[in-house]
Amino acid sequence: MSPNKASIALVLCALFATAPSVAKEKKPLSMDGEFGLIITTGNTEATSLSAGVTGTQELEDWSNEYSLAALYKQDKVTSTTGDVTTTATKTSAQKFFLSGQSNYKLTKENQRLFVFGSYEDDRFSDFKYQSTVALGWNQKLWDDAKSKFSYSVGPGYSFSQGQDGADLNSVIVRAALEYSHKLSDTAKIKQSLSSEFGEANTKTRSLTSVSATINGALSMKVSLKLDHNTDVDEGSDNLDTETAVTLVYSFF
User: Are 208 and 191 within 8 A, CB to CB?
Assistant: First the structure.
């Protein structure tokens, strides 16, 4: 493992270890798992299967958020040379994303300090990997029975490597917004948006979703994910999209 990847791994491990280290009593915890069909456009053109896990935890002094997502697809490609026809299996989509954020609660309600880490490995992008560590200010502007809205902003560092092996590391400023609104007792809409502004590249990620409860802990979700990079190779798309319909199960 390279020093850059090792640094990101240490940050993510620290974030995921925060909960048990500070928990003195049982606090609300939620975890959802999802599986479904994705239609992708941009640098990856495929119909693929996806899976993911998200979790949140509210402790006395900390608020933690975790996310894990994977995308994978194989195609059978048939080619004919003369009278000979061959069939081969080809991977057309392979993507892995992991992130975690811990927010330390200050004495004033809804004002917090955050530490964030993420790692993304997308075989069919212009990058072998993209990773980020950041820290700064987080605040809930409101959080009521119908909706909630929060933002985070702070400096950080981006570790990334192009497919040619060139390192594209830089100091960044990370800004993120999260909004959710309860449409009814069984339906809700969520919107998250983040941008990482750096000298080498500016990466923006948007995720919009609408979900509705089917029965008990099972729900259906329709989502649109946008990933945009300003610095890509010639002939590559700046924008990748994922449109998904997934089944979501709430474990607790």
Answer: yes
Position 23 scores a pLDDT of 40
- Residues 6 or more apart whose CB falls under 8 angstroms from that of 54 comprise 31, 32, 65, 66, 67, 68
49 vs 72: CA distance, rounded Å: 6
> Which domains does the chain carry?
3-250 (2.40.160.40)
What does DSSP assign to residue 9? Answer: H
For residues 216, 250, 71, 196, the Cα torsion angle rounded to the nearest 10 degrees is 130
Please report the beta strands in 144-215, taking only residues with DSSP state E, as ranges in sequence order. 147-162, 170-182, 187-198, 202-215
Task: Give CA–CA dist 194/216, Å, rounded.
Answer: 32
pLDDT 10s digits, 168-211? 899 999 999 999 999 999 999 999 999 999 988 899 999 999 99
Q: 3-state DSSP call for residue 172? A: strand
Beta bridge partners of 157: 133, 171
Question: Does pTM surpass 0.85?
Answer: no
Rounded-to-integer distance, Cα 119 and Cα 125, Å: 14
pLDDT over 70 (residue 158): yes
- How far, in Å, CA of 42 to CA of 84, rounded? 33
* Stretch among 7-11, 18-22, 87-91, 172-176 having the lowest mean pLDDT: 18-22
The per-residue pLDDT for 222 is 95
- Rounded CA-CA distance 29/3 in Å is 33
Distance, CA of 54 to CA of 213 (rounded, Å): 17
Q: In the chain, what is the straight-line distance between the N-terminal and C-terminal CA atoms, in Å?
A: 35
Position 15 pLDDT exceeds 60: no
